[in-house]
Design a protein that fits this description.
The chain has 538 residues and is of the alpha/beta class. The strands form 3 sheets. An 8-stranded mixed beta barrel has the order 11-12-13-14-15-16-17-18. The N and C termini lie far apart (102 Å).
Length: 538
């Protein structure tokens, strides 16, 4: 079998000496290579950009543009940056070799040139470049497969799904021994989204230590990198990452709007007979950079949003940990006698953020249950000084009652009538389940807020069968001067009598409003007229 490549590569010979130029070209043609000839550097560069050249053989000493300048011009163009260049020097001095290496030459031949050595050097470089181009083509083909698979992902796929697709595609390649995609979180923290070392989703099997994760984040912050793997550091537990057997790893940052949101790492074995160690490292680094860019485009926004959410969650948890909240109480009175029968507990935050805003933040960050339970616990503690006959009204969302009933029942005060005002920031999907959950809270009663303000509150009354219902303050304001409001209030009083709940007029601020409510038969009232929210007297 002939060693000459098929189809033959074309070698461009650049030399101002026509005799040497013809001698070199003839030797190469006899070895099976096509040749082109140029008498100076400018002519050679023009041929490179108009013909398919596989290697350049160039004399160093030429008038005008010398061989070093030719190499620098080739390396400056993306189209010829990797084109092999062999320089022919008139001296073997170290300075000439160093200058050629600095310019970007691949090899050197000193004059007088042995033709058999020239052919052997050319053949080796063309073979290496051909093998490298095959690797590049394989890499492009593999990336097309990943792109096709990503295109089949359903809209709205989460980052884990996308990361698993890319990891699975990369793990199919025999030269890849390890792949992992990490999410970077605030505080130099991170977690694995997907890895080839965790079949069945057991990500803990390949999870790095906190120290190792911070090392990866620091490396990614500085940019893509490639390094040798030598094993766990002293005191670091071994896991499937260290037992995978690869000896070189590359990593690249995943960015979104110049923000580090993730890291892609890949490990590879250097096997004898394959590409040189430097080529293995170059290819691995190029691959990890490319796929990190793909991940940035596909999941960068989601990871950035998650990071913001994690930061928000930590901020909110600090509020709970430092007890940066308190409770005030507003009295509920019998309108006929003005006797106080209980208090509604209202949460206040040290930073002045309105309670509805802060609780909405907590639910958005995934800590809504913790915030509501903390508010209930603090209210129960502060209300301990009240007579045991005083009822305590607490605001709770349906999700807390349904998902944390066991924790809630341990938090509610014992031996005191408790009213749970069911808030409406989320819809109730299963009223029967909610009724049953409230019934299991040790005798707690339910209340519906904002009755008369819309269809949702009326449905709450129908479905929950509460012990109390609060008339929305929009019905109370100016009721003494508005017959339509009076008619609606009278209807709600009648409905309450038929349904068995006690009606509380909310937001009463004027004596005339209280007088008209008494006339209409409303039993209970709450508002600034009877007392503003305030701490309980000790």
């Amino acid at each position: 079998m002939s060693d000459a490549p098929a189809p033959p590569a074309t070698v461009l010979v650049i030399d101002d000496d026509p005799g040497l130029r013809m001698l070199f070209a003839t030797a190469l043609r006899r070895a099976g290579y096509a040749t082109l000839e140029a008498a100076d550097g400018e002519e050679g560069l023009a041929l490179v950009h108009t013909a398919a050249v596989g290697l350049v053989l160039c004399d160093v000493t030429m008038p005008g543009m010398d061989g070093y300048a030719v190499v620098r011009a080739l390396r400056a163009s993306p189209d010829t940056a990797t084109l092999p260049v062999v320089l022919i020097t008139g001296t073997a001095a170290d300075d000439a070799v160093i200058e050629g290496l600095a310019a970007g030459a691949d090899d050197f031949l000193g004059k007088p040139v042995r033709l058999d050595e020239l052919v052997a050097r050319v053949k080796a470089h063309i073979r290496t470049r051909s093998a490298w181009l095959d690797v590049v083509q394989d890499e492009l083909h593999a990336r097309l497969g990943v792109a096709a698979t990503l295109a089949r992902l359903r809209p709205g796929s989460d980052p884990e799904d996308t990361a698993r697709v890319i990891v699975a595609e990369l793990a199919e390649r025999p030269e890849i021994a390890f792949v992992a995609v990490f999410q970077v979180e605030p505080g130099r923290r991170g977690r694995i989204l997907a890895t080839s070392l965790a079949p069945g989703g057991d990500l803990a099997a390949a999870a790095p230590s906190m120290r190792r994760m911070r090392y990866l984040i620091d490396r990614a912050t500085a940019g893509p990198w490639v390094e040798d793997i030598v094993g766990p550091e002293p005191g670091e537990l071994s896991n499937r990452f260290w037992s995978s057997g690869f000896d070189v790893i590359a990593g690249a940052p995943i960015f979104w709007n110049e923000r580090l949101v993730g890291i892609l790492t890949m490990g590879r074995n250097r096997e004898p007979g394959q590409a040189s160690p430097s080529r293995v490292r170059d290819l691995l680094l190029a691959t990890v950079i490319d796929y990190a860019a793909v991940l940035g485009a596909t999941v960068g926004h989601s990871l950035s949003a998650r990071s913001d959410l994690r930061g928000e969650e930590r901020r909110l948890r600090r509020i709970l940990a430092h007890q940066e909240l308190d409770v005030v109480f507003q009295p509920i009175v019998e309108l006929e006698t003005l006797r106080v029968i209980g208090y509604e507990a209202l949460t206040r935050f040290d930073d002045g953020v309105p309670p509805d805003v802060r609780f909405a933040e907590a639910w958005a960050a995934g800590v809504g249950v913790e915030f509501e339970l903390a508010a209930v616990a603090l209210a129960a503690k502060r209300a301990a000084t009240l007579p045991s006959t005083m009822l305590l009204a607490l605001n709770l969302s349906p999700d807390v009652v349904l998902s944390a009933a066991d924790r809630l029942v341990r938090t509610l005060p014992v031996g005191r009538p408790v009213v749970l005002e069911i808030t409406e920031h989320v819809p109730v999907r299963d009223y029967r389940a909610l009724r049953d959950a409230i019934g299991g809270l040790g005798g707690a009663h339910s209340a519906v807020d904002d009755m008369g303000a819309g269809f949702a509150s009326m449905r709450h009354v129908l479905e929950l069968k509460p012990a109390f219902a609060k008339m929305d303050m929009s019905l109370i304001r100016g009721i003494h001067e508005d017959e339509l409001r009076q008619g609606l209030a009278a209807g709600l009083v009648y409905y309450g009598l038929r349904s068995g709940f006690r009606l509380i007029a909310e937001g009463v601020e004027e004596e005339a409003e209280a007088t008209k409510l008494r006339e209409l038969g409303v039993e209970l009232g709450q508002g600034y007229l009877f007392g503003r929210p305030a701490p309980l007297s000790s």
